[in-house]
Amino acid sequence: MRSIPLGLLFVSLAFALDVDSLPVWDPSILEKNALENASETADFVATTDASDSSHAEIETHGYKTMQVTVGDGGTQVDQELRLSIQGRLSDSVYIDALLSDVDRKAGDQTTATLQEVDQIYFRVESPFAVLHLGDFTWEDNSMGLSSFSRSSLGAMATLRYCGSKVSGKASGAWGTDEVTRYSRSFSGVQGQREGYYLDESAGFISVVPNSEKVWLNGVELVRNRDYEVNYAGGLLNFKNGIIPGSDDVISVEYDAYLDDDIYTMYAVRGSLRMENLFFDVSGFHLENDVERMRKSTLDSADYELLKNDRGENLGAGSSLQELHRPKMSERLGARLRLQAEHRFYADVELGLNRMDSNTVSDDVGGPSGRAFRWFVTSDSTQNLQAFPVALSVYGNFVQEGFAISEFSGSDRDWDAYALRNEWDLDSALLKGDLRHDELALRIRLGKDWFGTAKWGYRRGDDEKWNSSRSQLSLVHRNLDAMSEFTASYVSSVQNVEQKRYQGTFSSEFLRGFFRPFGNGDVRYSVVDSLGNKSERGYAKTAFGASLNEDLWNVRESVGTLTVRKHDMKKGEGWRDSVNSVTWTQSAEANFRKFNLSHLLQYSHAVSDSLGASDSWVGDLNTNFGDDDMGLQGSVAYRFGMTSEQTYTAIYKAVAKGTGDVRYDSLTGAFIEGVDNGDFVYEGMGRNDSVGAVLSSNASLEASLEWNPGVSLGINQGLLRDITLSASYHSEAEDTTGKKIYFPPVVPAGLKSVTAGTVSWEATLAWDHPSGVMAQYNPSALYEKKMSSIGYYQDIFDHKISAGLKINEDHYIGIDNVFESVNLTALQRLNWNIWDISGKYTWKLPAGFRLEPRIRYREGSGEDDLKSSFGAYLWEEEIRVGYEKEGLVDGHVSFASIQMNERDGEIPYQMMSGFSDGVTYRLETMVSVEVNNFLSLSLRYILRFGDAEENVFQKLSSEAKAYF
Question: Residue 56 — φ and ψ, nearest 5°?
Fold first, then answer.
């Protein structure tokens, strides 16, 4: 007869069940899946509405857009629909519905700027039931042994009961999706805060939004507070002062879209809540939908290959891609929690698992097994007020077929990091059934003093591996400070025999202006591998202090890490394996006219294999001033390491002539804002043509605006009317191993980095109350791109503008631009441009306006062979416009453009895309707000003349209906 031993676990923050903490229906919660995803201990407070709720109160919002563009090369049709319905059907029935149709299904995002995807759901809620149809996310974290989260398309329903002493809920869901779950663990990189790949091969993936979970050293992080994920690409960035080092372990779980993996999901969950009893059951069935896969991605030859599978390597299918076996996973769990007198507590759980590695083959099965978990304590409260001694028992038994690493639950007792860090066990070498037992004795020693003694034992069913752990701890805790000291002994047997002696301490002041803190972890281990013994010493410490006020705080800390090894058999002395020092500084300030956020970390490490290395991470953001001061500005500076590729503009090909972006083969650049383009701008996307390499990055941005009249209190004269402003931007990236701590300040510095940009702009504006205005605006842009053609460009501009507002109906303006361009791409080109234009605006009665305009543009340059080219352009335009505020806005313009080439082939952008000869351009645009719910717009462009190859026409129309 096999007995299941009991164990014990001390949970320092264990809670006692209380009827006051039970969830109560809150009719104000209308967010999608809010109740299904809420914690069982969330405090939902029922509210009452004194207003008359006998009538339906439904709000409908949304729009429908249809865009049709007809060009010489074809027709481009784009449509978008978004409809949202929310509100009250009766005094206790609520509705929430969304229909989003943007011609982009989930998983098709390729750029960081595209977030909207096709989505549809309909949800109706009452105090007793919920019905949800369409896109939904099922999330079940009620079990300690397993959890299940899935974004799917289907149906979800919930029934609720809430009595005076008993409440309950039962939920079920069915759905289908093309989502696959992934998980991986990896070490941090010293100096790298951003750009960690979720995909193991560093490839582009589309992550299901909000499906990820991230752990750092076994502690789960909070989305958007501790980290953020770029779902279109799969990149992880840490925030809020979190900078992983080489000694830290990052674990992630996430769902990603995979077109050839179609799944069907069934899930159920039920809960019963009483004053002293919590009971939960949950289960799910997840299986590849083979019939649907046969209609889409799985052909008959591949199906026969899967059907005759004997568990060997399948190799590639008929499409020469790796053939994946259709899988099935099925789990069922039950959990019972009991409490008495708000201190006695018991938590027992049962889990069942069944899997199939190939659902179409009779010769390939899968693992199946059970798991048990239990926790019993005589006092679950933190301070042991009822009695000074508490005894706790914790344990679990997991059969190998339960696959504990799949769909891990909230307990995470067999987490790989915890096994390695606390038990000296390698999770990859755990075979057979798993057992864990633990006993804990907690004692209240006096006011604010507590002691704990723990002993735990982990083993396999055949005792081929085991680990025992003993720990004594002393805790001092009150409102002002908290300290903890522990002493541990670990003895483990796996591939090697290992004994570890460990001591840890932590102390921190929680209140006051000056708050010192410190922590340390010291370990000594002896490893015996077939009689060859070695010693290992490990010490990790951190000390620091923070200064805290209501509006600001500063924090300084210094951490050390030392790892030393010694081979006892050879008699060699101790040698340093790793020795590092890390200094971290952070500060925050939030005043009325000044705010600052600052983070700086320096790390120096020495290792036997790599020698000495240094790394820096910095982030500074500050804003100061406001309009009342007449002075305001900002500074942003950051640097560090990242594996993220450079983001570049993504252009989507459309029917010829229907876009507004054109590719210039002479310069190798995309030109935006043209009439007859073949592309449209899609957003910023990763440059995946460049391999994923660790790069050093730095950027600096600064801006300043000053109004002397406001800041000096001058109400008359020149200083009252002028405004000075300036901005500066610099960024750099290097992938050759060079560390960049500060971006290039001057353009010459770009030569020493892989890619970068230096730009600046200044403005001197004068605006006199009489209507006279003038502005001088010099600017420069120097850009080096990571490209196979060695792209480098610098542009320098001088822009002078002047205007005179004669009265409300008459305005005269003139613009004068001098531009110098030097471009190295497919070839070396440089040219200079002079562009001057003048415009007169005459507002006529009844909303009409007349705008004649003239422009002269001249350019000249040469290529790398010293061959010169040049051209000049003369443009005359007359525009008649009409505007009726809130109803109609339109214009008709006709222009004559004479462009003459003097020498050679000119870049497209040099003469605004016009060719040698005369071009006549007619443009008509009208936008009509039919009513509050419907708007129509129409734009027609006609280009003809001896400079055009053919008569070019483009008609764009858009209809937008608002709901």
Answer: -65, 140
Task: Report how far Cα 236 is from the mean position of its chain's Cα atoms.
Answer: 6
Indicate the DSSP class of residue 383.
S
Residues 55-105 pLDDT 10s: 567 777 777 787 777 776 667 777 777 778 888 877 788 888 877 766 555
Residue found under tokens 């390597």: 313
Nearest Cα to Cα of residue 340 among 294, 376, 288: 376
- The tokens describing 596, both together, are 């600052």
Helix (H, G, I), strand (E, B) or coil at 720: helix
Query: Among residues 116, 106, 110, 253, which one has the least CA distance to residue 178?
Result: 106
In angstroms, rounded to a whole number, what is the distance separating the alpha carbons of residues 921 and 892?
11
Q: What tokens appear for 3 in the block?
A: 């007995």
Q: Is the pTM of this model over 0.85?
A: no
- Residue 239 CB neighbours (<10 A): 16
Q: Which of 560, 548, 575, 553 lies closest to 522, judged by CA?
A: 560
Residue 669, both tokens: 């650049």
Sign of the torsion formed by the C-alpha atoms of 742, 748, 752 and 754 = positive
Instruction: Provide the token pair at 237.
Output: 């960035």
Question: Are the CB atoms for 230 and 685 separated by under 8 Å?
Answer: no
State residue 747 phi and psi, 5-degree precision.
-60, -30
Show Cβ contacts of residue 878 under 8 Å, excluding neighbours closer than 6 positions.
Answer: 850, 851, 852, 853, 893, 894, 895
The β-bridge partners of 881 are: 849, 891
Q: Could you tell me which residues come within 8 angstroms of residue 330 by beta carbon, excluding any fewer than 6 positions away?
A: 283, 284, 285, 286, 353, 354, 355
> Do 63 and 963 touch, CB atoms closer than 8 A?
yes
**Closest by Cα among 22, 12, 32, 231 to 119:** 32
Residue carrying the six token digits 């006609």: 942
- The single residue listed with the structure tokens 């729009």 is 63
Q: Which helix (H) or strand (E) holds 594?
A: strand 594-607
Phi, psi dihedrals of residue 292, rounded to the nearest 5°: -70, -35
Q: Which of 892, 896, 873 is nearest to 883 (CA)?
A: 892
**Cα angle vertex 434, ends 430, 435, to 5°?**
135
C-alpha separations of 155 from 25, 120, 125, 266, 338 in Å: 21, 12, 14, 10, 33
Residue 143 to residue 160: CA distance in whole angstroms: 20
Distance CA 532, CA 529 (A): 5
CB-CB contact of 639 with 741 (8 Å): yes
Q: What amino acid occupies position 169?
A: K
Three-class DSSP category at 568 = coil
Neighbours of 11 (CB within 10 A): 16
Q: Which amino acid is at 63?
A: Y
Q: How far apart are CA 855 and CA 899, in angstroms?
A: 12
Distance separating alpha carbons of residues 643 and 844, to the nearest angstrom? 59
The H or E element that residue 686 is part of is strand 679-686
In DSSP notation, 95-132 reads EEEEEEE-S--TT---STT-----EEEEEEE-SSEEEE
Per-residue CA distances from 607 to 387, 526, 563, 640 (Å): 51, 21, 9, 21
pLDDT along the chain (963 residues), means of 10: 34 31 28 37 34 60 76 71 79 80 52 52 90 90 92 92 92 91 86 84 81 90 90 84 87 83 93 94 93 80 81 65 82 95 94 91 88 95 91 95 90 92 91 94 94 95 91 95 96 93 96 95 91 88 95 95 82 76 94 93 84 86 91 93 64 72 72 74 58 77 93 83 95 85 90 90 93 95 79 91 92 95 83 94 92 94 85 93 89 93 80 85 90 85 85 85 75
CA distance 491 to 247: 22
Query: Which amino acid, one-letter code, is at 532?
Result: N
- What are the tokens at 730? 């610099």
66 vs 76: CA distance, rounded Å: 11
Q: What is the largest CA-CA distance in the chain?
A: 104
